[in-house]
Amino acid sequence: MSRLIMPLVWAAFLTIFAGVIFVSAGRADLPMVWGVLGVLAVFVVLMFTSIDPALMRERLRPGAGNRDRLTRPVTFVLMLGHWIIAGLDVGRFHWSPIPFEVQLVGLIGYAVAMAGAFWAVRVNPYYSSAVRLQTDRGQRAITHGPYRFVRHPGYAASVFGMLSGGLALGSWVAMLPVLVVVALFVRRTLVEDRMLRTALAGYADYANHVRYRLVAGVF
What we know:
With about 220 residues, the chain is mainly alpha-helical. It has 8 helices and no strands.
């Protein structure tokens, strides 16, 4: 069932994303917006063709014990505002245009971020949409793939993707909600890291070996 529902969920998300921006802009001839949509669509297809169905079910309907009920709903509202502002800026009012060269770099960065996010999800069968200890699924510490470099590579890719994707959309002022979302993800990282250190066998040793949470050498 999850293989049927999740594509519908993501199709609805892509439709909302495109609709909000293009309606706000009053036009659809925005190549960078189409570029971001294209990258996101490729990510979605890869997810549904290669991810374990059990993980899909967990992401769609996570089990009990969520420690962070704030980040996801607030992020959706803030990103909705980001898309509206970006559409209004690039399509109608041109308040704070981002140079094309910077947008292009942002689009490339967004593609790299989505590849990193896919890598993290692909190697981690416990990559839930909730911050919870998955004792019901036999959770263990994941130490290979991108987890060799930072402890939360999925969140790192998400943060980088929101920043670079925001640049690709072409509005400086629309980046303000994104900065708040970044702060929320940093908070979520700290909450999850603290939970795993205290409750997941082997994670504390792993954390002593891989010192950084999101950015190697920084945090």
